[in-house]
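Sequence only, no structure available. Ideas?
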Amino acid sequence: MAPSRVGCVPRQEDTENRMSQQTTIRKLAELVNTPVEKLLEQLAEAGMKFSGPDQVVTSIEKVKLLGFLKRSHGKADKPVDGDEAAKKITLNRSRKQEITVGGGKNRTTVDVVVRKKVTLVKPNDSGAPVSEDDERAEILRKLEESKQRNLAEQQRLAADDKRRADAADAVRRAAEDAVRAKAEEEASARRASEAANAPADPAPAKAAAGTGAAAAADPARKPAPAHGHGHPKPARVEPARPADDRNAAAARHKTRGSHAMVAGVEDDDAANRFAGQLHLSPSDRARRSNSNTRGKGGRMQQNRRQNEQSRSGGGQHGFSRPTAPIVREVAIGETITVADLAQKLALKGGDVVKAMFKMGVMATINQSIDHDTAALVTEELGHIVVKALGNDAEDALLAHAEEVQGDKAPRPPVVTIMGHVDHGKTSLLDYIRRTKVASGEAGGITQHIGAYHVETPKGVISFLDTPGHAAFTSMRARGAKLTDIVVLVVAADDGVMPQTKEAVQHAKAAGVPLIVAINKIDKSDADPLRVKNELLSEDVVAEDFGGDTQMVELSAKTGAGVDNLLDAISLQAEVLELRAAPVGRATGTVIESALDKGRGPVATVLVQQGQLKKGDYLVCGVHYGRVRALFDETGKQVEQAGPSIPVQVLGLSGVPDAGDDFVVVEDERLAKDVAQQRDAKRRESRLVAAAGNRMEDIMAQMGKGEGQLSLNLVVKADVQGSVEALRQALVALSNDQIRINVISSGVGGITESDANAAATAKATVIGFNVRADASARRIIEANGVDLRYFSIIYDVIDQVKQVASGILGMEIREEIIGTAQVRDVFRSSKFGAVAGCMVIEGVVKRSKPIRVLRDNAVIFEGELESLRRFKENVDEVRNGTECGIGVKAYNDVKPGDQIECFERIEVQRTL
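Reply:
I predicted one. Tokens follow.
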């Protein structure tokens, strides 16, 4: 069995080799890029039946299939034998070489490719020679035929031109004969009249007879007025042509183009194509050619004079100088630079600057001036001023926003909680929301404007919580403008305070109804009647006293009377009949904005109309963008937000100002145009205001005769509202002895650019709930910049006020003594969350207060509960040592956070 099996192997290999040399239907289909099923159908139509795609196709069958396909496409099929060879073979050869050019550093390598094409033609059976390149002969033959056709066409057109020219000459000669005959008749009539009235003196008669004879001999010669240097100007006879003939001639020329061809004239450059004019008659062309061949004497001077007359304005298209000053209408916007104004006036910049100096306005060519100054200068120079609106993008946005958004439906009310600091506003809202926001605020006071929507048994209500501190006036004013109802919280044991009166004024200015919530009635010294009496001085009359203001007594701690407050809010909302369009493009207002390190600019907005969806394009103040994500107040992502719903928006190009309106637009182009136009207006206004302020400051210092002390500050905070409040509060502390300048302010951590600005201006850097990064700290340490961190606005204002008032004394300063980085968090049943940390800077002491930082922002402030090294309690841990830290009353520590240990020290203030 074994020998027979070995003997079968070679026969099987021979069969496989023979099969590999043949072509199957499947392989042929791949070669010709045709589906196998279609190829089988074509073979069947050609009369060759195959059962499967793996069968072998011979060369004869391939040739037969080719002939069938040629006949099916309408091509003649010549009988082709299987062994017939091609009669012409084209060989393409390409050779690539590299050549080095130059030497040293300038040496370069150039690739040279030589391509060669050789065509080999097999001689025919009769032995007759065949052309080397049939294609070249065919191209030459076609080229010769094209030349013959073009020549014939040119001859035909020349014949047509000659025929038309002969006809025109015949008409002209007939007209000239008629004119000549008429002139002869007039001359004979004149001679007859002169003979009838012959004078006594025969000499004049002879002269007259001689003149008449000369006139008769050449009737075409007439006395012509002299021009130039006394040469008589030949009179040109214009034969009258019918209008139809002219129109027909114009139509014939139009069909062939603007340049007419004349019989017997080839394309001669010496003829200058009829000396620059079109459609000349043969006589005019002959006359011009004769004039060109004459001498260069007086004729050339005459031609030069005629050309000068044509250039000086004697012709139809001559240019004449204006006889009166040109008065222009100049469009001027809010601001304009002197260079742009000079360009619009078509004057030099120096002339405009000179006119402004004469008027007492000193400005350079690159300086911006306001509309009134530009209008005075323009009118002084004799031009008319037109107000340039320049609000194309704003008009388009306004038309965009006024589109019909649909039927209006009832919407939830927007309620703003206002009142004096520490009167229980946030605690009341916490009870309604069943949360604890006040415990997370630094110092236990609200320093941000918060927006929440709560589903109560009385329906959905949107709340805005505003700060009660005196520094947050703009925040409270903004909250009053956005709201439908103002709830004024007054502590029953404290009574009406300054911020309470201010809240009443904001509510009256906004024109919104007021509901008074008398809080802390559970305390022993509570006196609600005292609060009602004190509010009478602010024109707030309770319903008990016959007024129209609802007053509800409640306790945010126990919850007593909170339901009555919700009933009062629902009743007031029903009276107001609040309605808004639930669908369509959204519009609203920015409540608060911040710069998040991981998410970028974040804006808390309140939707007032329409529906804000993910992916919408919106313009918000001087910024624009596309909504990348929407988050509610709990941090949960939502897809859309309707009227009266506050949400956080991600995707803007920058941090908008709190209080800016936002509008959803159709595309990004309109949003970008509006934002850029607003930004340009704001920049121009700021430049003009800055220039004016500098001049006023210089004059004020010159009048005083002594320099005023100044304190420069760089303010950075975590949200836009805090920046605005700090800026206004600090600038308001200025007096005659010292002026406080906030040279830079913004949202986010303290960056390298902030540190450079502070070092240049010798300013103090104030970080409100933010920290400086590593690069900024290096610059601050190298330049000795004063950097101070704060988390309570009281401390900022108090310290700056002490310096501004000139009160010296002990200064309480916070000094960071150590920083530990959280590597991991361990859960313990005894201690809760224990953070495994590495001390990366300074020393961490158990007795000192700490702050928890996340992304350089303060998220918690408190003290340590435990500080362990291995299993032992220690008092301090130094740099480069691992330890376990338990934060008291805070279990939300995450890996990557930093625990900052600091101490408050008293430093003697020095000048």
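The radius of gyration is 51 Å.
Hope that gets you unstuck.
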